[in-house]
Amino acid sequence: MIVAMLSLWSELTVVSDFVSEIFGGDYPVDPLKLHQIAARAAAVYLIGLAVVRLGKSRLIGRVTSLDVLLGFILGSLLSRGITGHASISGTALSSAVIVLVHWLLTLGACQSHFFGRLLKGNAVLLVKDGEQDKAAMQNCHISQHDLEEEARLKSIEDVKDIHLAYKERNGEVSVLKGKKSPHLVEVGVREGVQKIVIELQNG
User: Which CATH number fits domain 122-178: 3.40.50.300, 3.30.70.3450, 3.30.70.270, 3.30.240.20?
Assistant: First the structure.
């Protein structure tokens, strides 16, 4: 029994020494070598990827204030783990806790509209049927030029053609163009053929 335990301890020591040589230890005392920095970068990247995937983060798919904050914090935590200013185990644990808190907050926001508004804010109406709400635009720090730029990006030449425009909760401006409505221009008969001209206008 003792011989088996000593053998196991010897094997664990060999593995520990190998890991220390590759990664520089969990929390390195000596300055890291180049191959150790590379190994830690790969390990921390995989840890971060696993944590984000398990936490169902929307860092890439959709950006809100919660997601931006999570991105900043995770970036700081993971970079410290790579450079050796923090242990790999501590980096993994703290990243997992941050993503867990983020997951709980976003889950609460999905379950409760009030909680979601508290965390993410509200969409603000900027334009309705071509009429701009100057007070809302000023409150959102959106200038006339900003609004015109957003309209051009949506292939709308004139702000007056905008049906609805909102400053969304993620900070972007969404623009909806006015619906097309038919307008009868001409009705007549020429050479036995009835002619009807209809023009589509912004409603």
Answer: 3.30.240.20
Separate counts of helices (H) and strands (E) for the chain: 7, 6
Q: pLDDT band at 64, cuts 50/70/90?
A: confident
DSSP 3-state of 3: helix
Instruction: Write out the residue limits of the CATH 3.30.240.20 domain(s) in the chain.
Output: 122-178
The alpha carbon torsion through 119, 102, 45, 91 (nearest 10 deg) reads 120
- Please say if the pLDDT value at position 47 is more than 50: yes
pLDDT in tens, 80-98: 888 888 888 889 999 999 9
Mean pLDDT of the chain: 80
- Residue with structure tokens 């867990």? 100
In b/e form, how buried is each residue of 4-35, taking b as 16+ CB within 10 angstroms? eeeeeeeeeeeeeeeeeeebbbbebeeebeee
Strand bridging mode 162-167 / 131-132? unpaired
Q: What is the CA radius of gyration of the chain?
A: 30
